[in-house]
């Protein structure tokens, strides 16, 4: 079963990538870049900010800017962090 970070959409395909709760246990909801010690590393980040943050990473993987933005706009709002 594939798991994705419910904040940035990154595939969580290794224990090292998992975020952590306040008690030190790993969480399978978020990645280490978004969530550590039971809180978001950037609590004020908006969905728009997250899209801007992710576009360069997708471009590095060979995606065009337009394709990256389209993917993120479709995918990120479905993630748990952005439901409200
Ligand atoms: Zn993340």
Which helices and strands, and how do they pair?
Layout: E1 18-20, E2 26-31, E3 35-36, E4 39-40, H1 47-60, H2 65-75
Antiparallel strand pairs: 1-2, 3-4
Helix pairs in contact: 1-2
Zinc ion (ZN) binds at residues 5, 7-8, 10, 30-31, 33-34.
Helix amount, in percent?
Answer: 25-40%
Number of helices: 2
**Strand order in space, largest sheet:** 1-2
Count of individual beta strands:
4
Rg value: 13 Å
**Quick one: overall form?**
globular
Q: What would you call the structural class?
A: alpha+beta
State the order of secondary-structure elements, H for helix, E for strand: EEEEHH
Mean pLDDT: 95
Fraction in beta strands? 15-25%
For the termini, the CA-CA separation is: 26 Å
> How many domain regions?
1
Which small-molecule ligands are present, each listed once? zinc ion
Low-confidence stretches: none
Oligomer: single chain
